[in-house]
Amino acid sequence: MTRSFNTSTDLPVILEPRYQGPDALGFSRWLGRMPVWVLPLMAAAFLIWPTVVEAQTVYSAQKIMDIMAKWLPLLITQGFLMNVVISFFTMLFGTIAGLFLGLGRVSDNSGIRGFSWLVVQLFRNSPWLVLLFIVMLTLPFEIRVAGTYIAVPDWMKAVFGLSLPVMANLAEIVRGAIQSVPSAQWEAAESLAFSKRQIMWQIILPQCFKRMIPPWMNWYAIMTMATPLVSLLGVTELVTLSRQAMEAEGNNPSLLMPFFGFALIIFFAYCYPIARLTLRLEKKYAVKG
Known about the structure:
By secondary structure, this protein is mainly α. Helix content is about 70%, strand content about 5%. The longest helix has about 45 residues, at about 60-105. About 25% of the residues are buried.
């Protein structure tokens, strides 16, 4: 005779712990899980659009294509390339500052730890556009060094403004990576007479770098997508040049979709492989429980 068992019970059980906090790779997970055919679909829509709107505008599809072919080299070499340069230097400065700020978050000194916490909370919770306005409008356009005036370009001010929130978020990644290393390794190193500095730089941080790579790449993709914000402050990049090109071509509404559609496609084409690689590295460097 078979007997059915009820799996539910009123007895207390130990449930598997589940992480309930925010997803550190949320953006890459969302972008990387899109199917590969999304990019060709966007490109097809970009090519078909001039034909669809031809009946509603004085611009023919051929004229719109000619205009795009005329401006694309400029948009890529002096527009999108500047977005990449801004994102690169932003991540460079933000990573260096975030590393030291993250070390401050786990410092034994309560003063340093408290100051680091304050800086992280301040810049993590500040609107990026507000930070950009403050930095762009308060920093001088040139500085004097040893009697020589050195110009500070607008894009460099934008880099500094965007580095602040990136620094704060990367500091939290550094703190989390350090605290993810088992405490037994600290105790083992101390038993071998390692100093705290040696333990941090020779034992703990080398293990942290692999764990920090996926969230770091996630932030690089987010940073690249956010660079068009600087167009609101007059920095010459892809969106700024797109607007100027449309004005030069008569500011016809039928040009909006081709120009901004191209911007959408090129940002997607650049960030999509990064998101896919981020998810792959997350699996590769996942800590086995």
